């Protein structure tokens, strides 16, 4: 139950988010770079302009605050067109370099055959500021500066010191503001942290949030995740409880105020995911679930917010009551829950080269992309490719079914009718997909090279392993792991199409290749008997051994295309299998598919079987899913399970969760809201602003979604008895 203090904070936040507030951060940053620091070297210009923008952010202080610090959504609402400093804009130069090396790149991007570049998506070691304070980190970097091995390291250390000082200066402004309105308790706390190490739970929360705001000012991109907040805060709370300074109920109030501050800052942008993961595993393999893990889940369940995203790491043999709480969260948590199973995720990381001691520190750098907390650079998720579109072009010999246009950038000119056996067709399909994934990942290398110069990210780099020792920012070779994560979208749809081709064209001779291509070009108009035969062929999700085996082979081969790539600093590509908002987006460029689906059908979520293929029930679908090569999914593989509200209850969901993890699944999410309620909210949105749904990797207010996304959610498979 919410306390009076939290109710008061909720009411105050509700008033503020209705009017909103403009943040002119990026205007200040570029203006300072152009007008005040133009004479400086690029590295120092970036540091000084960022420090100026941070120090000059507005300070919002209220008497009811017990946690200090507040910024608002960082994209401009009514700011005049910005004049950007070209030295601090990596995108233009990077894209020019990419198109110079790959002239066909523009057509590949426009047709979703290679992904775009997404900034952000990272977890960082914020606990350093809790443990050392700004002053302690400053001492580390001053010592490193005295022994800098080269000019680049010297510049990096100086840049970090400039940003640490900016954090200190902005915090001091808050101290003065809170003193000015008579909130002396908070002013005193902020005088202590983050300048010095946190001595108790309240100070640890305050130090965390102030550094979080400044990091998110420096790197204001969706997908930045605080990660293991309960893990690093629990020692402070545990000590306070033992020494009588704080109770669990008081701690819950503090956490709820923290969560309300998250939502106040990001209220207009549900898709701006900042993920906290609770629970998990210790280095020795034992459960890391602690009382704060329970408390954070309970805290978010009581709040009507979409930020932060609170996800759960289930350790091996999780506590019984913790699994039950997860089921309750899934059932009654406003569709905000996402569960990750540690043995499956950690195993994939270890199998693909990460030491266990690092793998066990994983967190979500946003929607669900797996990163190692404080060890990876911020390309954990950088975009996606529509694998089903590649299959379409393989079938037609490069002709887009939607437009009738032949793509000159596609590498295969012979259509399906050219092949005399399925194996040869599949081999060429994988070869072409690998070629496109290579171009996609090479594009990220080009962006990373420009990013290290134009966006050095000094503050967040100071909380990434090996940057201090190497004297480099995270994109200049400083980060311990320089991996790129990308999404091969619509793999279940692709598997169904491939299996239909295998059976209908090459084995059972239901139709010729020419007949199938003609039917697809006609969107099956006039080919209904053939379409029905294609629909009757088994699909991934029906627990059919042969169909599932092909799906598994496809996912293995596509994952290997990522994993075999070596990035510019020795990292690798990582398959991050999610769907986010892309189901209707991907469908919008797809024609009819080889398994008999007409154009316009949304694609499957992550590695979840397509809704059309789950007619045999959730048990069959989970059995199929469990056969997939999870050891290959080092970036994470999500699933979406929506439940019919007339069937779902906590006991049912608990049983499904247990079945899922027994099969070795990695990431579990879904909806439990009734279909009737969704339809009503779509037709009459007024009064339905409270309705939150799981979109795919994030949760959003249903009435704020596009019509296409609303329809996609409404038409998903809803599992029932």
Labels describing this entry:
721 residues; alpha/beta; globular; five-stranded mixed beta sheet; 7% strand; three-stranded parallel beta sheet; single chain; 29 helices; 16 strands
Descriptive notes:
The protein is an alpha/beta fold. 50% of the residues lie in helices and 7% in strands. The model has no long low-confidence stretch (mean pLDDT 95).
Helix fraction by DSSP (H/I, runs of at least 4) = 40-55%
**Number of H/I helices:** 29
What is the approximate shape? globular
Question: What would you report as the Rg, rounded to the nearest angstrom?
Answer: 26 Å
Strand order of the largest sheet: 3-4-5-13-11
A few lines on this structure:
With about 725 residues, the protein is α/β, with parallel strands linked by helices.
Give the SSE map.
Elements: H1 4-19, H2 25-35, H3 42-55, H4 90-101, H5 105-110, E1 122-123, H6 127-146, H7 151-180, H8 184-192, H9 201-218, E2 224-225, H10 229-242, H11 248-266, E3 275-279, H12 291-301, E4 309-314, H13 320-332, E5 338-341, H14 342-351, H15 356-359, E6 362-364, E7 370-372, E8 384-386, H16 387-396, H17 422-454, H18 458-461, H19 467-470, H20 474-478, E9 484-489, H21 491-507, H22 513-521, H23 528-536, H24 545-563, E10 573-575, H25 582-587, H26 618-626, E11 638-640, E12 642-643, H27 650-662, E13 667-669, H28 675-683, E14 692-694, E15 699-701, H29 707-714, E16 718-719
Parallel strand pairs: 1-2, 3-4, 4-5, 8-9, 9-10, 11-13, 12-16
Antiparallel strand pairs: 5-13, 6-7, 14-15
């Amino acid at each position: 139950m919410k306390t009076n203090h939290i109710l008061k904070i909720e009411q105050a936040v509700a008033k503020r988010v209705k009017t909103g507030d403009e943040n002119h951060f990026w205007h200040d940053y570029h203006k300072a770079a152009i007008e005040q620091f133009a004479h400086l070297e690029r590295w120092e210009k970036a540091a000084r302009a960022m420090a100026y923008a941070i120090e000059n952010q507005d300070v919002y202080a209220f008497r009811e605050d017990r946690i200090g610090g507040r910024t608002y959504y960082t994209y401009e609402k009514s700011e005049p067109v910005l004049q950007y400093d070209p030295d601090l804009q990596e995108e233009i130069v990077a894209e020019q370099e990419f198109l110079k090396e790959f002239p066909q790149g523009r057509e590949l991007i426009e047709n979703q055959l290679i992904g775009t570049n997404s900034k952000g998506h990272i977890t960082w070691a914020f606990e350093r500021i809790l443990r050392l304070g700004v002053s302690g980190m400053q001492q580390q970097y001053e010592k490193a500066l005295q022994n800098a091995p080269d000019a680049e390291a010297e510049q990096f250390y100086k840049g970090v010191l400039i940003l640490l000082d900016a954090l200190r200066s902005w915090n001091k402004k808050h101290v003065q503001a809170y003193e000015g309105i008579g909130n002396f308790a908070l002013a005193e706390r902020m005088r202590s942290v983050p300048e010095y190490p946190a001595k108790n739970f309240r100070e640890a929360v305050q130090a965390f949030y102030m550094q979080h705001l400044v990091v998110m000012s420096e790197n204001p991109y969706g997908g930045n995740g605080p990660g293991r907040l309960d893990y690093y805060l629990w020692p402070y709370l545990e000590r306070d409880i033992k020494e009588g300074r704080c109770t669990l109920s008081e701690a819950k109030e503090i956490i709820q105020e923290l969560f309300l501050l998250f939502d106040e800052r990001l209220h207009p942008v549900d898709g701006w995911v900042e993920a906290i993961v609770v629970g998990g595993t210790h280095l020795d393999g034992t459960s890391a679930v602690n009382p704060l893990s329970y408390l954070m889940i309970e805290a978010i369940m009581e709040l009507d917010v979409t930020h932060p995203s609170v996800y759960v790491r289930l350790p091996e043999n999780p506590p019984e009551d913790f699994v039950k709480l997860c089921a309750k969260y899934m059932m009654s948590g406003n569709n905000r829950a996402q569960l990750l199973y540690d043995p499956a995720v950690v195993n994939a990381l270890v199998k693909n080269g990460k030491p266990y001691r690092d793998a066990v520190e994983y967190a979500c750098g946003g929607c669900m992309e797996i990163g190692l907390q404080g060890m990876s650079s911020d390309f954990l998720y950088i975009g996606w490719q529509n694998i089903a579109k590649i299959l379409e072009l393989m079938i037609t010999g490069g002709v887009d079914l939607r437009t009738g246009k032949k793509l000159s950038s596609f590498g295969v000119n012979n259509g399906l009718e050219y092949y005399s056996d399925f194996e040869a067709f599949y081999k060429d399909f994988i070869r072409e997909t690998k070629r496109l994934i290579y171009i996609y990942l090479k594009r990220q290398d080009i962006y990373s090279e420009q990013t290290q110069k134009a966006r050095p990210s000094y503050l967040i780099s100071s909380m990434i392993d090996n940057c201090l020792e190497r004297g480099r920012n995270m994109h200049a070779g400083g980060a311990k792991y320089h991996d790129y994560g990308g999404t091969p979208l619509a793999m279940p749809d692709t598997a169904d199409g491939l299996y239909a081709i295998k059976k209908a064209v090459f084995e059972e001779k239901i139709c010729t290749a020419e007949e199938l291509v003609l039917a697809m070009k006609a969107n099956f108009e006039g080919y209904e008997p053939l379409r029905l035969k294609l629909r009757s062929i088994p699909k991934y999700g029906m627990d059919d051994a042969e169909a599932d085996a092909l799906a598994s082979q496809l996912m293995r081969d596509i994952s290997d295309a990522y994993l075999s790539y070596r990035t510019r600093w020795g990292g690798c590509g990582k398959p991050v299998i999610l769907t986010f908002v892309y189901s209707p987006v991907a469908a919008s460029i797809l024609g009819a598919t080889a398994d008999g689906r007409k154009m316009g059908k949304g694609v499957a979520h992550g590695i979840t079987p397509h809704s059309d293929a789950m007619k045999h029930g959730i048990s069959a679908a989970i059995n199929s899913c469990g056969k997939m090569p999870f050891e290959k999914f080092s970036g994470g593989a999500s699933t979406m399970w929506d439940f019919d509200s007339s069937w779902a209850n906590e006991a049912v969901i608990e049983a499904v969760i247990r079945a899922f993890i027994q099969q070795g699944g990695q990431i579990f999410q879904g909806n439990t809201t009734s279909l009737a309620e969704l339809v009503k909210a779509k037709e009459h949105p007024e009064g339905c602003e409270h309705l939150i749904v799981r979109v795919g990797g994030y949760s959003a207010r249903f009435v704020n979604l596009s019509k296409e996304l609303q329809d996609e959610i409404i038409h998903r498979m809803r599992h029932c008895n």
